[in-house]
Amino acid sequence: MLITKNIKMADVIHMNYFTLSVLNRFGIELGFGDKTVVEVCKKANIDVDFFLEIANAFVDKDYFPKKQLQSFSVKLITDYLRKTHYEYHQIKVPEIENLIEDMVKSGYTDKENLVLLKKFFNDYKQELLNHTQREETVVFPYAISIEDAYNSKTLENSVFDLMETYSISIFQNEHENIDEKLFDLKNIIIKYLPKQKKSENCHKLLYELFSLEQDMIDHSRIEDKVFVPKIRDMEKVITKRFAEKKQ
Amino acid sequence: MPKSTFIICEKSYIVRKGLISIIEKIPNTQIVQQFDSEDEMKNLSNIESDFIVINPNLLNKETINILQNAGSPAGSEGNSQFISLSEKSEITDINWVEFININDSQNTILTKLKTLIGNKETNESKSKSQDEISKREVDILKNIALGLSNKEIADKLFISTHTVVTHRKNITRKLGIKTVPGLTIYAILNKIININDTE
Lengths: 247, 199
Ligand SMILES: [Fe+2]
Ligand SMILES: [Fe+2]
Hints:
The complex is a heterodimer.
Chain A: H1 9-15, H2 19-25, H3 37-43, H4 48-59, H5 66-70, H6 74-106, H7 111-151, H8 157-165, H9 168-174, H10 180-192, H11 200-246
Helix pairs in contact in A: 6-7, 6-11, 7-11, 9-11, 10-11
Chain B: E1 4-9, H1 13-23, E2 29-35, E3 51-54, H2 61-68, E4 81-84, E5 96-99, H3 106-125, H4 135-145, H5 150-157, H6 161-175, H7 180-189
Parallel strand pairs in B: 1-2, 1-3, 3-4, 4-5
Helix pairs in contact in B: 4-6, 4-7, 5-6
């Protein structure tokens, strides 16, 4: 079912409780009574159209309004992506680490196996950190400069220099899948890890892995299918302007 | 296990959609084509499918002939199997394997279909177990886990890099593990390599 402006925000969560993480990223707090989506967004100073497209794409993997999403500003899109990164590092990853730690304590399986698992996740955590840091320190600032230049009436040579040193296609080529290792970890636990004690902690861990993996697939899809093409289009326009200026 | 494929022949849009939504609940199934008229069914002859679900009111001399020659996909045994979309059918030229009544509950239909799919799968899997990795694949996996590149593995085992890549794809598909660190853990857990062999 499609999330629309005038349904109650509470019903959005009832419909699919995974939207809680989207709400969290938009800074929407619970306790909104019977207020509608548009009312809640207004009060929290959120672009309701942007919220709707993001939330709908998040709950329904077949619904992907590429064109509509590309119409929002780079600032808005990258803010959302940044908040998602923040949530991964501050909430989701530590949660998973704790659950792995619980498995160690409960003696779920042989110690050596858990050491392996811990190392695997630790390496992954570092990789994820490098991935998001690169986006936040290099890619997003570049994209915002491109958007500024695109919206500006004057054509600064500094932008030309900037585009000489970096371009969104570099990012496109180096942008790696960050969900694959979660997929692996899930399967290792489900299919291959020998167990000794009760599975409860393990179920919680799997639940978190599934949810983070799904979340990251959605996140990367916005980066690859919305963010990258949007910047590429603006780069093209700017390049054309420079060419015209030279003539 | 290869997917179980279905063709649906039924005039009513509502019935078709309903049936499709039930079939899609069964894992590893695929609807390859739908037909809503005798005329359309002329195109059926070049489509392969494990099961053909058909309302007998779409049967006439011509369509019966087409159905009798319908083939199942390569790799499956025999011809397509026919499921009637009505409780009884006077037409005996077709060898019905099951009858679905319009008033059947969802569970009844699911049970009927799952039984048919189950029978087909046991027939197919008698000889080969498709999800187990072969001895050759274990060799490759071992070298991946030891940190060798595709090129290095190819040189070591005297095969082409292309073959290594194919093996890797099969290993990943069978195990459900995509990354090198993931495969390494699998290899250690299954004693294909020793933990001290890594770094
Ligand atoms: Fe990101
Ligand atoms: Fe990313």
